[in-house]
Amino acid sequence: MSLFVWMVLGAGGGWLASRLMKDSGYGEMAEIALGVVGGVAGGIVTGLVLGMNTASGFNVETLGGAVLGAIMAIVLSRVYKRTRANA
């Protein structure tokens, strides 16, 4: 159940992150996919940092971890994209 919650919140987080971080050049579907990956990673890290099961349902910790993970995934993909373009 927790992986599913992180994926759903990550998709929403990816969409929200795409709105917060304008002009990424990927498109909405790619950013939602990055959000799912970031949401799962953010959920795992948030669970480890807080020391509790953060994906027990929809709560502030789960949403925050998913959105932050999605934003980090988009930022890292932009950095990777820029470095490959300059190489």
Proportion in β-strands? under 5%
- Coarse structural class: mainly alpha
Percent helix range: over 70%
Sheet with most strands: none
Q: Given the structure, what is the number of helices? A: 3
SSE arrangement:
Blueprint: H1 2-20, H2 28-50, H3 60-86
Structure overview:
The protein has one domain. It is elongated and about 40 Å long. It has helices at 2-20, 28-50, 60-86. With 87 residues, the protein is mostly helical.
Key descriptive features of the protein:
mainly alpha; elongated
In short:
The model has no long low-confidence stretch (mean pLDDT 74). The chain is mainly α and 87 residues long.
